[in-house]
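Page 42, continued from yesterday. The earlier attempt failed because a stray header line got pasted into the input along with the sequence. Redoing it now with the clean sequence only.
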Amino acid sequence: MVVTGDPSSDAEAAAEALAAGVPVVDLLASASLGELQVGVDPGGSPKAFAARIARDLHDRFDGYDRAARVLAHANTYLGAIISPDEAAPILRQLSELPIAELAAMDAIQMEHLAEDLVERHTTGAPDPDVTHAAVCASRASALALTQTRAVAARLAERGIATTILNVTTTGDRVTDRPLNAIGSENVFVTELELALRERRADYAVHSCKDLPSRLADDMTLVAISKREDARDAYCSERYPTFADLPAGARVGTSSPRRRAQLQALRDDLQYDDVRGNVDTRLRKLREGEYDAIVLAMAGLNRLKVRATHTVPFPVEELVPAAAQGALAIEMRAEPSPLAAELRAAVNDDATERCVAAERAALRALRAGCNAPIGIHARYDGEQMHVALRSFVGDRLRVSLETETVATVAEAEALGARAARGILEEGMP
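This time it went through. Structure tokens are written below.
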């Protein structure tokens, strides 16, 4: 089998091989990925289909060529400083890094990472028991993978490579019904936790707002990332602002929390469910199925996408979901050196305390992630402000609490006190 990207050269090489009695596989097409050449043999399919596969490979695997060049540089660099036997496990570890992260590295960054791995392999630092390769369970959506790769990149800086296990969740499979009608609160979580329990994965990355307020006893959160923009965003292709929407305009949102708060702002609009990942929802908006939709700013920022008109709602006007904008790293609740590595790589103490307050309020209210409740905690100096907005039927209930908070325990106490402000009014 010869693949050079040049049909005439391939044919000439194949003829020489046949003349020498060497078997030749007749590849119908090849994809050129920079210096990489990939041959396509689609069996009995037409040659035109083989060519189409080659084109798709070229489009889909953009970045692999750059990643290959970075690894080639690593191979050369390691060959100059250590023996081939010592270099082999390090190259295997580097090869498991996310393609996007490899492609983004320059020569100096790769050399620094390679040197760090050499030191870890030769000295055992920082801990000889630390796992140097891990498997992360992730949903397969573009947003979920972007979030997971961001965590994997931080872990890679500590010399630990990650392989991503794509998991399809109930929320991903069932897209023809509202989330609260599927029958499970944890529609984006259960299957990822199953991968952890079955030891097919070592850790999982979640949008923290998708998690239930209480984890199962055999699960634990080891890190909370620095929060992205926590606000919800108005998105429209036609109308510049939420106030500009005409009466009767169709607004898409699958969140009971968003719908309740939006309806309190404007009850003259039509609010309908919209399902699918961020790209799918924006496409439905562009195609005119909705006059506007509401999405999380965090997801838009991470994917670097926008509608023609994208306007964040102030948190005082549309209170976000508990933990919105933060990522949560979940593991089995058992001793693991990897847990300490993930926490050191990812955890943001201030965000962790804010998320702890918000999740404690949900627990006190005995509410799930799909309840029509907005909770947002933020710091002003050393003081944490917790704003809680709950809807029971058409009735709006608000609780505001402020206190100096320096620990997770203090944050949880503040969140629970904010919830009591609602409970004292009488939750049904």
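Notes: The mean pLDDT is 83.
Reminder to self: strip header lines before submitting.
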